Structure prediction request, 263 residues.
Amino acid sequence: MVRDARERNGRRLRCVLAALTACCAWPVHAQVSGSVGVVSDYRYRGYSLSDGNPAVQASIAHDWSRGAYAGVFATSTDYAGDTGAQLIPYAGYARRDKQGRSWDFGVRYSHFTTDSEASYFEAHVGVAFRRAAFRVHYAPDYFGQVSNWYLEADGSLPIGERMRWLWHAGVARSGESTERTYSYSPPTYPPPNYAARYAAYVPVETSDDRTRLDLRTGVALTTRLCDVQLTWQHVDGDDRTAYAAPYDSRDRAGWVLGCVHRW
Prediction:
């Protein structure tokens, strides 16, 4: 069963990469952009996927004048006690209306090199204004466990010539899980490390509230070397809820410092 799941996920990843390759071969005027950098902690929708350790990240993207776009984002991870990488190939279409709003829709495939069963597809629709953007995401098999809706809002405001104030708010709503709850009961809680937290299942009282909120705010400074960002990130939800991964009841908030060079 594990081998079959890995083969299916491998085929999915190859299909997505093949589609991106075909897009990049499309003979239309295009703009290529990319980035490379390091962050003190890789937080994904509020939770750390680097176990609180620094992560190296890179991306490359293609934008076409007709509105299509495609790219790949990669980051190092420390997920479920295993060090590896997360690869996110994506593609979509964006169009600006007469009022200056930019509408877009797209799909992406989040692939973990250390755990292919946690890989999943996700689709989104969104709209961007001058200072803020809103998106709704849906994954039918989020982290290989449950369906998941995610609504996010992002924005920034200039503070002088080189500095910006950043903000983000996200709300996730998971479907009912058929898996047993990841948890521990005293006196084994807290477990010694991340791997131990997911190595065993202990039945616990669960809550019907499957909603969680993540917030991020901070500043970004543009320098000749890179864009420096310092943000405070917080996540809130019911500890008794059978969340899909990467839920961790101890991982609630933290500072993140990053330096990303873009071109």
